[in-house]
Each structure stands twice: as structure tokens, then as C-alpha cells.
Amino acid sequence: MNSVRGQLNGSHRISKLLTLSLLLAILSILGCVDPDPGYRSSSSTTVKASTDTKALTTTGAKKSPINTIEALVVRVVDGDTIQITLNGKKEKVRLIGVDTPETKHPSKPVEAYGKQAEEYTRSKLSGRTVFLELDVQERDKYGRVLAYVWLTQPSKISDSEIRAKMFNAHLLLDGYAQLATYPPNVKYVDHFTKYQVEARNADRGLWGVPTTQKSVAPPSDTGSGEITVYLTRTGEKYHVGTCGYLSKGKIPVSLSDAKAQGYEPCSVCGPPQ
Ligand SMILES: [Zn+2]
Fold first, then answer.
1. Nearest to 154 by CA among 173, 131, 179
2. Residue, of 144 and 61, whose pLDDT is higher
3. Is 91 among the residues known to form the active site?
């Protein structure tokens, strides 16, 4: 699997090279420098180039307290999953810390407010350039990049900057998503918890849907009367979909299968028995 962090470094290196090439071209026009003829074609000069340009790009670079990856959103899959292009390659990105109601699951019904969440994300992110921030884990088990999606780069990390500029926070504040904590990716969990409380207290979005229609708390019915619960590869317990123990793997099974195979209910998330 490709490293996203690696791609970030790679793209910086390329842009540094381009910057230096441009500068050299200008200088040579002015007659100040006789450019090394092997410079542009030979890969042996790459090291020299990136060392030389370090000072140039740092002074010109926009200051941000965090490392972000600039990416173009090419498709919105659902409320909490988008597709981006990164260095010409398509990647799926799962937003960290949030769960929007289900709209795409093959065996689950569309959950209340799922369509609204998807539309909201589409209206805000489609075709837009965003800045991805990674947490501890770069990808989930499906190979999706796990990220915080900044609409513009924050000038500092503060509550007001997160509220203003981070899309994951907007989903929670506007009631389009529930908090979903998957350790170890918990950098903003304190902020996110607060935003969810605010949205719930104000009956925003999915929190305003009458309880009888609300299916935001997994497990949900598969339609065949079966309840879905989740296993990990190595654990002996079964869980609801949002349980923190599922950070390393989330294998859906029916409740009856889980029990038949000898799995016990998790004591932390309290799945149905
Ligand atoms: Zn659990």
C-alpha cells in the first residue's frame, strides 16, 4: 500500500524542483547564472536541488501549525466518505471521528437523515480543494485514508479555528453525524464531544428526528429481521458498530451467528444479547 505521507513528501520535492528550475531559468535570462546543463535531465542532481531549495520554499510557504495534504475532492461517496485525487491517483478518504447515518450499506436500510448528510457533504466538498490532516493510523482496514478535512488551513489549533475551518467538526455541529471514536485516532476527540453535545441540545439535524424513526445507533436491522453486530479478527466479544474496540477491524455478522460461534457481548458497548 502506498504511503500517503510519502506522497506528500514526494509532491513537495517535485514542487521544490519546479520552483528552482523556474528561478534558474529567470536568472539565466538575466545572465547571472550559467545553469548546469545536466541539471534538469539528470537524477543525480536531485539531492543537490532539494538541499538548495529548502530555504527558498520555507520562506515562501504558507505557515500552518499542522502538516496537511492538499487534495481535490472528485466524488462524495456518502456523508463521511469522499474520493480525492492525490498526485493523479484516486483515493477514498474516511473522515475521522464522525459517523453519518448509513446510505450505501448493501444489506442495511437507508437510515434516517443519511440522505441529508450525504447531500450536505456533497454541497460543501464536491469539486473543492481541501487539506487533509492524518492522525496516528494512515488507513483503515479497507485501505481508505483516515483524515480530518480542513476547508482552509488553520492558522493555529484552537476551538474557534476548528469550528470555522474543519469539515469533520461541521458535520457534528450541524447534526449530520454522530461522534465515532476509534482509538488511537483521537486527536480532536475533546472538541468533537463538545460539538455533539451542542448539536444534540439544540435538536440540530439528526438529533431533531423523532426517536421512533431514528436508527442512528447501531446495530440496525438488516431488513430480514436479523440484527448485525461486529467482530474483530482476534477478539472473543461482539460489538455495536461504533465501539472503540473495532478500530483494528470490523467484521459484520448477524447476532445469531455471533452467538452460535460462541462470541460474548462486549461489556463496554453493550450490544443486544
Ligand atoms: Zn464493544
1. 131
2. 144
3. no
